[in-house]
Amino acid sequence: MIYVSEKAANRGSYIFLPKSMHEIRDELDREKIYGDVTGKLLSAEKFPELLPMEFAEEPTLAELNFLVERLVEISEDTEKLYAYRALMRTPAADIYEAINRTYGLEGIPVYPCKDAAEYGEIVLDNDFLDEFANLPDEIYNLLDREKVGHIMQESEGGVFMDGWYIIPSSYEPKIVYDRSNPIKEESWVFRMELAAVPENPDDISEAETVFLTLPATDEEMKNVASQLGVNRIDECVWLKFETTIPQITDDVVNSTENIYPLNEMAETISGMPRSEVVKYKAVLESESPKYLDFASSILKSLDQYEFDGSVENLSDYSVNYLAKMLPPDFDKEIIEIAGSINLGRDIGARNRAIFTEYGMVSRCGEHLYSMIEAKPSEDLMQTEKGGETMKYEVKCAAEEHKTMFYSDCSPELREACVGHLRMDFGRVGKEFYSTWWGNRPELNDKTFRNELDDVINALRKDGLLKSRSEMMKFCSENSHLPLGESRGFAVETEQHLFLFRCKPQVGDYDCYCYCYNKQELQMAQSQQQNQSSGPMMSM
Fold first, then answer.
1. How many CA atoms lie within 13 A of 341 on its CB side?
2. Residues 354, 355, 356, 358: is their CA dihedral positive or negative?
3. With contact defined as beta carbons under 8 Å apart, do 347 and 317 qualify?
4. How far is CA 1 from CA 18, 33, 60, 176, in A?
């Protein structure tokens, strides 16, 4: 274990090594440690001679991690383990000497014996001393094994440890790494071990493989494809997939057919400052993308999300929120006292904000710190009949609305679109994931958001959005507007028109809901009527 502390802040974290460097960076990101850091080895159970490890020049995280990787490797060989321990009784001058001593350990003699008498027996049995080689047996048997062992130990500089005798003076130093050849961090975003598709799938474990790191140039990808004997890199299969973005897994990437868009994403990510990479990981954690195109869309619209990486818990969020909403001269001590996890949870729910280990994230196009208005009174939420909660009628969409189910509708109609919601029921078909894509931020006010929430929640409770199977049933039993392989439905309220494009199937997004402001839509309709003599859209 090591303790990592940030040089410019009173902040630190305990980390167990070894790990890949991108895992270490991600762990620090979750701990809000972004600046230059120092690391100190706190425990090394099998190598107590390493503690305390004090060097004149502080080792980097990559150097400490590499040392621990080497220690794990040599600990699998008992003789090398004790050879290294014996060497480290004399402290290393710097981290590089500590690392270099893990090489060449096979040259250090290590014998299983617990004391000088046992070692003396080994010396005599193996004729280590030429002086005793020609002694008669009757004289040889009279020799004091313990004295022989002590004499040899003193001349060799050997040490006894836990039932082993080691001769560290036999070590010949190896220079594998030094300041001119330092331990470096790899700079890739994604890495794949690729192979050509074998004729017999059972032979894949024996196939020749090549590693490809992304981002990569076209030439680099062509070279890898050539090494594997294929025309294009996306004709390969991967045996191993590594990522510096833990939310983009091999399941999300799905196949090498996505290697080109993945490379484009890697190019973007590699050029982003660390703060933006942390934000991207936070948004991915909040959105839980299951498909690469979703993860790519998030990357392209990252500026539409708000992120506060200083938030360590929901209590922090509540304090930050109150500090922003109250006058600047309001007593900060009272704000600190008022803050709580429950308050942060309630504020987050009303602002549709999500807490992640990286910090607080808004929904796409929304805000973390916006004024929360009072909810409508309970009687306004009920219908006139028996006080039942308001229901929304899902109708077959009108033919004249056909182009409005997509983002590439006419510019006039596009101006009336507040944005659209993309929904998915997950692999099982009963989960619910949604992502908001904004279009007209000024129309995305509290009234609209409350109405959208009401419509979606009502249809999730009992109806079109309850599950994939319920959507399939609804589509088959109700009239709809044909939209290619999809089916179109509409929900209309006093101020808005919600158009649902449904295609319930595994492996694709199940539904898109395009949201229109009716007043803006009427203006768009008038504009189109002036440009043509066609009929007006029915509202």
1. 2
2. positive
3. yes
4. 9, 17, 15, 25
Nearest to 365 by CA among 299, 295, 303: 303
Which residue has tokens 């309220």? 493
- Residue-wise pLDDT for 99-125, tens only, equals 999 999 999 999 999 999 999 889 888
C-beta pairs of 93-98 under 8 Å, 24+ apart in sequence: 93/55, 93/56, 94/55, 94/56, 94/57, 94/59, 95/55, 95/57, 95/59, 95/63, 95/64, 95/67, 96/63, 96/177, 96/178, 96/179, 98/50, 98/53, 98/67
pLDDT band at 532 (very low <50, low <70, confident <90, very high): low
Lowest mean pLDDT across 135-144, 306-315, 321-330: 135-144
pLDDT digits (tens, 9 = 90+) for 21-51: 999 999 999 999 988 888 888 888 899 999 8
Taking the model in full, what pTM does it have?
0.69
Q: Is 270 helix (H, G, I), strand (E, B) or coil?
A: helix
Please identify which residue in the block is written with the tokens 């392989």. 485
Q: Which two tokens stand for residue 360?
A: 């607080």
113 touches 119 (CB < 8 A): yes
One DSSP character per residue, 213-267 reads EES--HHHHHHHHHHHT-SSGGGSEEEEEEESSTTS-HHHH-SGGGHHHHHHHHH
Query: What is d(CA 453, CA 433) in angstroms, rounded to the nearest whole number?
Result: 14
